[in-house]
Amino acid sequence: MQITRTDISPTRAALKINGNATDLEPIKRHVLGHFAREAKIPGFRAGKAPAAVIEKHIDQRALLDEFMEHALNELYRRAVGSEKLHPVGQPNVQVKKFVPYTELEFDVEMDIIRPIKLADYTKIKLAKKPVSIIAKDVNEVLASLQKRAAVRTAVDRPAKVGDEVTIDFAGKDSAGKPVAGADGKNFPLLLGSNNFIPGFENHLVGIKAGGSKEFSIKFPKDYAVAALQNKSVTFKVDAQKVTKLEEPKLDDAFATKAGPFKSIAELKGDIKKQLAAEQQANANRDYENQLVQAIVAKSSLEIPESLVIDQIMRMEEEEKRNLIYRGQTWQEHLDQEGITEQQHRDRNRTAATERVKGGLVLNEIAEREDVQVTPEELEVRIQLLKGQYQDPQMQAELDKPENRQDIAARLLTEKVLQKLVGYSSK
């Protein structure tokens, strides 16, 4: 087999591959073996006829098609191994010459990953941020529990701070056109919570059930929805209901209703413990991300554009699934953000690039450290995941090859991160 390599760019290579009869004959015998199991040839038991006889009795087009598939794959695999290439994605293949079963010449272009110049990750040290839960954190959770346990009573009086007002609202711009993302139906708004658009709640103090109000608000320049930043919107609000909230006292009786606690002190202690565990889990994730970013920054690697595009599309699909749960379409989301689909993808490019680089670096470290996921470890994780679902269909999904592969990849990443944290902590 003859191979001629051309480097098109740091992340793309071309191979001209020429296989001769010596290369192709074993492939042909292998393919004929497939047909031998099915071919019915007089005088021979299934699978026992000589290759030459089998060839004469089978469909020549079917033989040629299967041969070409096997030959292209096998010669490509051998050529990539010979050139020590690490291809990604589907190669672009063009057959240039084929003399049946004696000569095959074809060109291949592919994206490749060059060898990574990995930083000395064993010497990268990062300080861990301490986890600290203060009384304010606990009190915020208690206040939330109080509000959820509050007795709600509809009242026929003007709303005041501390009341909950159920409203329909719609916003329009200066031209009188509806503003995407500035409307809602039967929305419960707690006056004084300051959880809504800045200034909005103040306009509803004094409104009664059945009443309406119209007012204008300028959205903050750092508002989460880019399309609404610094924008003046006129709202029409209809109040459906005004509800008085009577919150229970924070005493031992409240604690016993909130859970298996004998006193308010026990409840506070449990809240503090859960907050600490949650904060620690977040801190650990942040620490691992920072560690990977530090290693990537000190390493040298070129990544193909195709990997970045694939990652952008995966991020987009994940976002679309989340939108479905929220009852919002993809176009509604884009309109709310005030951007096109391409602008949305461009916005995700930096994060996608970092994810790809991080993944490649972690895979390289896994190889160097000989980190592997055993079949037993994978099976235990799958069984644990199955225990989280009652739906048999969801449990069956976990057994699909592609999902098992994804779970194994996550397990491998976890094991590599454990090693990196260990090195950084020494």
Describe the overall structure.
With 426 residues, the chain is α+β, with helices and mostly antiparallel strands. The chain has three domains: 2-112, Trigger factor ribosome-binding domain (Alpha-Beta Plaits), CATH 3.30.70.1050; 151-246, Chitinase A, domain 3 (Roll); 259-425, Trigger factor, domain 2, CATH 1.10.3120. The chain has twelve helices and nine strands. The strands form two sheets. Strands 5, 6, 7, 8 and 9 form a five-stranded antiparallel sheet that branches. Strand 3 and strand 4 (103-112) form a beta hairpin. Helix 5 (252-258) crosses helix 6 (264-298) and helix 9 packs across helix 12. The protein is elongated and about 95 Å long. The chain starts with a strand and ends with a helix. The relative contact order is 0.09.
What does the secondary structure layout of this molecule look like, with pairings?
Layout: E1 2-9, E2 12-19, H1 21-36, H2 51-57, H3 60-82, E3 87-99, E4 103-112, H4 135-148, E5 151-154, E6 164-172, E7 178-190, E8 212-218, E9 232-246, H5 252-258, H6 264-298, H7 305-325, H8 330-337, H9 341-369, H10 375-386, H11 392-397, H12 401-425
Antiparallel strand pairs: 1-2, 2-4, 3-4, 5-9, 6-7, 6-9, 8-9
Helix pairs in contact: 1-3, 4-6, 5-6, 6-9, 6-12, 7-9, 9-12, 10-12
CATH class of the largest domain: Mainly Alpha
Distance between the termini: 51 Å
Shape: elongated
Please state the average pLDDT score. 91
**CATH homologous superfamily name of the largest domain?**
Trigger factor, C-terminal domain
